[in-house]
Amino acid sequence: MKGTVVITGGGTGGHLKVAKAFVDEFHKRGISPIFIGSTTGQDEQWFKNERKVKKAFFLDTKGVVDKNLIGKSKAIFQIVKEVNHCLNIFDKTEVKTVISVGGFSAAPATFASILSFACKLYIHEQNSKMGKLNEITSRFATEIFSSYLDDSKIKDYPVSSEFFDNARVRHEIETIIFLGGSQGARAINDFALSVALKLDELGIKIIHQTGKADFQRVKSKYDELNLDVDVFDFTDDISKKMSLADFAISRSGASTLWELAANSLPTLFVPYPYAAKDHQYYNAKFLKDKKLCFVCRERNLKPEVIDKILKADIKSMSKGLIDSIGYNAIESIVDVIIENNQK
Ligand SMILES: CC(=O)N[C@H]1[C@@H](OP(=O)(O)OP(=O)(O)OC[C@H]2O[C@@H](n3ccc(=O)[nH]c3=O)[C@H](O)[C@@H]2O)O[C@H](CO)[C@@H](O)[C@@H]1O
């Protein structure tokens, strides 16, 4: 491969999981990329000690969207400053390929790749509605990979193999997993607590990922209810937890959604209502239109929802999910990038 590869982006687990898939795939092929992320968000947590990267840079950047005018100006000024920093890195390490997985962390390296004519830019857009940065920069990209774009060369989402390996067709609901995405979701936590006694009476086991911020509160409530629940804030072994469940109630962040699909786990998605352009709703709608999931707006999430789920035909949904996503997405995406690099 000519020149160095940069993988950039992050902020939250959804973007970082895809960044990690790229790092792992390049490493498998004997290529050590550089990672460029931010000091804000979860980037350092995921990549500070990652041995598969040649070097990781964490730049002083913050999100631009959802800020007042002064906040926006400061964030933009900081990005401009860090673009320069990236151009220096590109120059010193002969960067020829920049792969953005989106999020504000990706801004400096993405803009630097556009300014440096020696680089090719690739974008992986995880969501059904394009993020602001990708909307601005995508016209400069050599390829945009997305599960929702008709003209994407590879449409399958890069999901780790363990989600496929542990997949099975679900027949009846004996265990439900509640998932809040990388940061947890208070609305899903409250819903789980409101139906926990009923599920227990029905003999249904609960697995519950709360997110860090709400863990103690949720754990104490289960203790008060005297229920034996597998409750945790975050785990590195989420595929194992998913595979134990027969049904999921989850946010529809892109990585989680496609992991659940890969695992053939029927799901009720409760989209995060404040996501940009309501993208979590449209992520889930993509599967709902194929009758492969249920979707419930957060405002309609009432205990009665459980009765409907218990009557549903989860077997045909679970079977249908098998064909919704193919196995080797990250290999195919990296093949396209390497082929282009050789031209
Ligand atoms: C509030 C918000 O705007 N969230 C966005 C964010 O979500 P968020 O960061 O929550 O992302 P996702 O749901 O896409 O991914 C979370 C990742 O964390 C992993 N995980 C989660 C819990 C756990 O205990 N262990 C674990 O490993 C999941 O398996 C998954 O791979 O990025 C996604 C991808 O751009 C978007 O679709 C979401 O809308």
Brief rundown of the structure:
With 343 residues, the protein is an alpha/beta fold. It has helices spanning 13-28, 43-47, 69-93, 107-115, 132-137, 161-165, 186-201, 215-225, 238-244, 254-262, 279-288, 305-311, 314-321, 329-341; strands at residues 4-8, 34-38, 55-59, 95-100, 120-125, 143-146, 175-179, 205-209, 230-232, 247-250, 267-269, 294-295. Helix 3 (69-93) packs across helix 4 (107-115).
Q: Helical proportion?
A: 40-55%
Query: What order do the helices and strands follow?
Result: EHEHEHEHEHEHEHEHEHEHEHEHHH
Sheet with the most strands, sense and barrel status: 6 strands, parallel
Mean pLDDT: 96
| Strand arrangement across the biggest beta sheet | 3-2-1-4-5-6
Examine the secondary-structure arrangement and name the CATH architecture of the largest domain: 3-Layer(aba) Sandwich
Tally the helices.
14
- The global form is globular
Classified in CATH, the superfamily of the largest domain is Glycogen Phosphorylase B
Cα distance spanning the termini: 11 Å
Bound molecules: uridine-diphosphate-N-acetylglucosamine
Throw out a few tags for this protein:
Rossmann fold; six-stranded parallel β-sheet; binds uridine-diphosphate-N-acetylglucosamine; 343 residues; 14 helices; alpha/beta
